[in-house]
Amino acid sequence: MSDPGTVTSPTAKRRVPLWDNARWLAITLVVVGHSILKLISESDAAYAVYLFIYAFHVPVFVAVSGYFAKAGPPGARQLQRLLTDIIFPYLIFETIWTVVRWLLGGRFWLDYASASWTLWFLLALAAWRVALPYLALIRYPLVASIIISVGAGYIGSVDSTFALSRTLGLLPFFVFGWKLRQWRLTGRWLTLGAHTVWRWRAGALGLFVILAGIVVTNIGTLRALKIRRFLLYNEAYPEFGYDQIWAGGIRLGLILLAFALTVAFLLLVPRRRTRFTALGAATMYIYLLHSFVLYPLRETGVLDGPQPGWVLPALVLGSVLVAMVLSLPLVRRVIRPLVEPRAPWLFRPQHTTAAGTPVPGEPS
Predict the structure, then answer these.
(1) Predicted TM-score (pTM) of this structure
(2) What kind and span of H or E run contains 14?
(3) Is residue 362 part of a domain?
(4) Residue 1: which pLDDT band, with cuts at 50, 70 and 90?
C-alpha cells in the first residue's frame, strides 16, 4: 500500500515517527474494537470500552489517511496506485472472503457491491481520494463534507451498497486530515519544547478522562439512545428509530467531538521513535488480515452469553498481540502479493500519456 508515514525532502524520503506511531496505535484500537464486539450485549464494561474507542479510533484512522492524500489533479502514477493499492486488494480479499464462506457451508456468491466486514474501508478510501480534488475546489470543503455527512443520514437509499453510507458519513474526517496538513501544524508541533508539549498533552488527556467518565456513568442511557449505531456511520437515522428532524444534530455533535478527540489523540502520540514505530508501515496488513484471526471468535459462538471478567482484558491484550504479529516483516513478505499487488503487465508503458498516445519526443 502507499505509505502515508513519509514526507518528501529535496534529497530523499524520510518517515516521520509521529505518523507511524499514530497509525499503529489507531489500527490496534480497530482490532480491539472488533475483538470485544461479541461482549458488548452482555457486559456494560465491554460496551463502555467499545463506545470510548469508537468515539475516535476510526475518525483518527481516516484522518491520517486524509493527511497524506493529494488534492491536485491525479496523474497517471496516482491513478495506477489507486488501482494497485486499493481496488485490486479489495477485489482479491472480497473474493477470498467469498471462498471462505463457501468452504464453511455458505453459498458461493460473488457480490462486490457488498463489502465483507472490514473491506468497506477500501471502497471508501478509493472514493475519498477521487473526490478530494473536487472538494478542494470549494471554498469551505470541510464544512461541505460535514453537510454531506449529516445530510446522508436522512436518506434511506444511502446504505451499505459499495460502502456508500460510511463513505459519506466519514468523509469529514478524511477532509479534516487533509486540512491538518494544509494548516502545517505538524512542523510546529514537532518543534515545540517539552514543557509546552506536556501542557498540551495534559489538556488532551483531560479530554479523554472526561469522555471515559461520561461513558462509564451513563452507559445505560447510551444504550437506550443507540449511540453505537450513530458511531458506525453505516445506516440512515430512521433505520434505527431516529426519524426526527433533529437526528442529524446527534451526528453533527459526534463529528465535532471526534474532531477534538482526533487532535487530542495526535497530541498524545509519541513524537519520537518507539518500539512500535516501525510497525506503523504495516497498518493495511493488520487491517485486512486481523478479521481472519478474529473470525472464529465472531462466528463460533465461543463468546456468546455472559463471560468471566477476565475475558475483556484478555481480548484487549490479545488484540495488541495480533496487531504486533501481523506487523512482522515475515507476514508482510508472505502476504505482500495480496495486499500490494503490482501487476505491471496490466499498465501502459510510462512513456505514453494517460490517453495511450506517445509522449512527444519519446519512441512510440
Answers:
(1) 0.90
(2) strand 13-15
(3) no
(4) very low
C-alpha cell at 206: 483531560
Q: How far is the C-alpha of 130 from the C-alpha of 72, rounded, in Å?
A: 10
Q: How confident is the model over 260-272, as pLDDT tens digits?
A: 999 999 999 999 9
Question: How far is the C-alpha of 216 from the C-alpha of 45, rounded, in Å?
Answer: 8
Summarize pLDDT for 337-354 with one digit per residue, the tens: 999 998 787 887 765 555
Burial group, residue 309, by CB count within 10 angstroms (0-12, 13-18, 19+): exposed
Distances (CA, A) of 250 to 149, 160, 257: 12, 20, 10
**Residue 201 Cα distances to 53, 208, 265, 266, 268, angstroms:** 18, 11, 9, 9, 6
Number of structural domains (the chain) is 1
**Does any domain span residue 50?**
yes
Q: Hey, what's the cell of 328?
A: 512482522
DSSP string, 244-275: STTHHHHHHHHHHHHHHHHHHHHHHS-SS--T
Range of the domain at 301: 6-346
Helix (H/G/I), strand (E/B), else coil: 326? helix
- Label residue 289 by pLDDT band (50, 70, 90): very high
pLDDT for position 13: 57
Q: Flag whether pLDDT at 322 surpasses 90.
A: yes
Distance separating alpha carbons of residues 37 and 232, to the nearest angstrom: 12
